[in-house]
Amino acid sequence: MLKEFKEFIARGNVMDMAIGLVMGSAFTAIVTSVVDNLLMPIISGLTAGVNYEDIAVTIGGATLKIGLVINSIISFLIIALFMFFVVKALNKMRKKDEVEEEVTTKTCPHCLSEIPLEASRCPHCTSKLEGYTNTFDK
Predict the structure, then answer these.
(1) CA-based torsion, 18, 22, 28, 30: positive or negative
(2) Can you tell me the distance from the alpha carbon of 79 to that of 56, in angstroms, rounded to the nearest whole number?
(3) Residue 60 in contact with residue 66, Cβ under 8 Å?
(4) Which of 40, 53, 71, 123 is close enough to 67 for a disulfide, judged by CB 3.0 to 4.6 Å?
(5) What Rg value do the Cα atoms of the chain yield, rounded?
(6) Within a 13 Å sphere around the CA of 37, how many CA atoms are in the beta-carbon half?
């Protein structure tokens, strides 16, 4: 059982997930700092000096800190936008890889078998393919 656990941990997916979680935590800290120290002061300045962090409502002795919730929402939206762009870029790279993989074969016009792109003769029906020359065909 210990051997199976070591194999599970050593797999790339688990390590990738662990690295992603650490990087996500670090990125969250950066975004929170940008929101708290850059964006919110700018928004506060544009709204006649209203500091959103100080906005709070007291109901029956409980203080609801609405300003901190607004900061969290802005942080979430920035992180979600960043993750959208990352996923979009990854999907674009994967799509390019799939297209490159699809172009490695062609169809023989005589027997309709799938053959390598570089083939000058079909390995299935031995027909010479037009437009392709090879040193062995001369």
Answers:
(1) negative
(2) 25
(3) no
(4) 53
(5) 30
(6) 6
pLDDT for the residue numbered 22: 92
d(Cα 47, Cα 18) in Å, to the nearest integer? 41
Q: φ, ψ for residue 100 (rounded to 5)?
A: -65, -35
Q: What is the DSSP letter of 123?
A: T
Instruction: Compute φ and ψ for 70, nearest 5 degrees.
Output: -60, -45
Tokens of 111: 């027997």
Under a CB-based contact definition with an 8 Å cutoff, are residues 121 and 104 in contact? no
Q: What is the mean pLDDT of residues 81-99?
A: 83
Task: Locate 123 and state its tokens.
Answer: 């390995």
Helices 12-34 & 66-102 angle (0-180, nearest 10): 140
State pLDDT tens for residues 118-128.
888 888 888 88
DSSP classification of residue 120: S
Contact predicate 59/51, CB 8 Å: no
Structure tokens at 121: 């003769």
**Contact yes or no for 32/75 (Cβ under 8 A):** yes
